[in-house]
Amino acid sequence: QVQLVESGGGLVQPGGSLRLSCAASGSFVRLDAMGWYRQAPGKQRETVATLTSGHSTTYADSVKGRFTISRDNAKNTVYLQMNSLKPEDTAVYYCFCQAVVGVVWQTYWGPGTQVTVST
Length: 119
Known about the structure:
This protein is an all-beta fold. It is built from no helices and 11 strands. Strands 2, 4, 5, 6, 9, 10 and 11 form a 7-stranded mixed β-sheet that branches. Strands 1-3-8-7 form a 4-stranded antiparallel β-sheet, with no helix packed on it. The protein is elongated and about 45 Å long.
C-alpha cells in the first residue's frame, strides 16, 4: 500500500502564493508519475499538473505559467508551487501517484488539502 499526506493548503489573497507538498510512504517498489488534481464545489475534477518519473510535465491550461510541479525522489515527495493565485483556484487539492506495489501497478490518492483564494 501507499499513503499520501498533503500539506501547505490554506487561505491566501488573490495574487498570492502557496506551496503544496505531498509525501508518499509505504511498501512500494517504484513511484512513477505523481501529480495534483483539484475539485471545487459544483465543478468537474481537474487534473492540475503531472510529473512523470522521466521528468515530463503537463499542466492544465488554467494554471500554465502560474503553477510549477516538482519532485524530490529521495524524499518521495511532490510539490506544487502556486503563484498569482486567483479566486477560481479555490478548491480541494488532491495529490496522486502511480506506484508499483509488489507486482501491481496502481494509482493512489491523498485525503486532500483546502486552498482558498479570497480577500
